Automatic annotation (TrEMBL):
Domain of life where this protein originates: Bacteria
Similarity annotation: Belongs to the UPF0145 family.
Coiled-coil region list: none
Name of the protein in its database record: UPF0145 protein CP967_18935
């Protein structure tokens, strides 16, 4: 279903529930806070660009770029959770990711969703 309890960062807290769905079974939305997002842009490392170019000739996974994208996605998600927490939310519904090129120098990843306050029913 796409449920991820997320504490973010080093605190280890799991006080913000992040889901890709419109609702959370067994919970009701008490208050809609609004849109929240986390954004990060990562520049490309010259070495990884050269390695990716060579790897693309023979095919296969670009592990260095995959690792960078996973780290970047996680950072965007952490920022989304921080913003939701700061606005008083305990959940983010309809979480999505948008990935785009940033002026030919890097990759932009934006995590966004709807911050809400939920409670058990």
């Amino acid at each position: 279903m796409g449920i991820e309890e997320y504490g973010g960062g080093q605190t280890g807290r799991t006080d913000v529930l992040v889901v890709t769905t419109n609702d959370v079974p067994g919970h009701r939305v008490d208050r809609v806070i609004g849109e929240v997002f986390g954004l990060t842009v990562r520049s490309r490392h010259l070495g990884s660009q050269i390695g990716a170019g060579l790897k693309s000739l023979v095919g296969g996974e670009l592990r260095g770029l995959t690792k960078t994208l996973v780290e970047t996605r996680n950072q965007a998600l952490e920022r989304l959770v921080e913003q939701a927490r700061a606005r008083g939310a305990n959940a983010v519904l309809m979480t999505r990711f948008d990935v785009s090129e940033a002026a030919d120098v890097g990759t932009e990843i934006c995590a966004y969703g709807t911050a809400v306050v939920i409670s058990g029913t």
